[in-house]
Each structure stands twice: as C-alpha cells, then as structure tokens.
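Journal club side-thread
Mid-discussion, someone asked how the predicted structure for our own chain would compare to the paper's figures. Pasting it here so we can look after the session.
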Amino acid sequence: MGRLENKVAIVTGAGMGIGQAAALALAREGAKVAVADIDDAAGNATVDQIRAAGGEAFFQHADVGSTDDVRRLVEETVARFGRLDVLVNNAGVAIAGTVTEISEEDWNRLINIHLSGTWRGMKFAIPHMVRGGGGSIVNMASVQAIMGIQGWSGYSAAKGGIIALTQQAAVDYGGRNIRVNAIAPGTIMTPMNEKIFAEAEDPDELIGTWNSWHALGRFGQPEEVADLVVFLASDESSFMTGDIIKIDGGMSIKGC
C-alpha cells in the first residue's frame, strides 16, 4: 500500500517540470490526482502517464491567475473524487528584471500567478479539507525568496510572499488539522529554466554559471523535489507545519 492510498490531491502546473514529477510521484503512492495546467496537451500527457502506470487522474484546465478557474478546479476534484486531502500550489512563471527594469504588467503577472495563485488555491481547498478532517498543503516557494540573485526582483518578491502566506495559513488552520508547508528549491532543470537558457546569448556559459552556484555543482532534477512533495503530503511529516524546506543543492550556503 502506498503512503497516500485513498488520498485525493490537486497539483497545479502539472503539465511539466516539478509539477508533473510531483503528480506522478503522488499517484505512485496511491493518491488520486487532479492534474491542472493551462497547457491542455501537456496536462493530458501527465494524466496518460499516471493512468498507464495504473493510477487514477483527470485533467482540468486551470489558470491559477483566475479565481473562477481555481474555484472550478477544486469543485470538480471534489465532485469526481468525493474529498480533497492534498494541494500542491506549484504553477508559476519566470520573468526577470530589477526593480527599475521590470514593467508594471510583468510585476502584476508575477504576483498574480505566484502569490495570488497560491492564495486562491488555499482559499477554495481549505473549506473542503476542514470538512474532511484535515489535509496537507505544499506551496512552491524558491531559494530566491531568502537570498538575492541579480535581476529577479518580481519573482523573488512573489516567492517571498508565498513564504509569509504559508506561515500565516499554518497558524490559522493548524487547529483544524491542516498542515501548510513550503518548499524552496534551488535551480531545477525544468522546461521553464530550459527556456531561459535557450534565449541566452551563450547558453553553455549561463548553464555553467548556474551550476557553479550550488555546493553540489549541479542543478536539481524535478524528481528530487517531487520526493519532498510526497513526504510533506504524507503522514510521515505529521508534526511539520509552517516550515520552509530548502532543497537547493547547497545554493543558499554557497552564494552566487
């Protein structure tokens, strides 16, 4: 029996990268998974992988920047599976820029998708978790929320807000048996980062630089983060809430 047998989970941004790896890992441990993404083809491909491995999942188109989309995502999950036990707020975008360089449009987009998207997920998921007797929420922050990296003001601010929101929600709902934790990854080799490298003037140089930022001398892989998601979703982490867990290959202790 898996660690999440008979549990129901939602994963946003589950069409690729960390979200996809988390959805697959949760399903392997027995969870029924609602796969959410704005990319229908990618989301359905994740569902196909879960079903091919004997798991149970469905795809729901959802933009976490839309209140209506997130509400529908949660309602559809509960309608199909009868309950909600795990929420993984993972969807995000990467937009660079210093405070003076970033446009107001990009700033607002980062805050809306990362921070407000995390808030929307919790807003609609928590009432169902309360009715079900509890649950586990895993929010995706970033090591950039706790250390400065040149040129990422909006992204870092949004991720820092997720940390504060995680801790506040953990206090507010701990008495209802709802645990809220955040993960702070270092550089993970995801399609989002691959796009940054592809658009760089010298991709090999940028990859080498980013590798050197980590004490382990390499990027992390989505599956490594997914293992931590499973741990936080499971009863193995039953006395953990409001924690910010770094999984950064030593990035935050080495510095850039």
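Post-session note: The chain has a mean pLDDT of 96.
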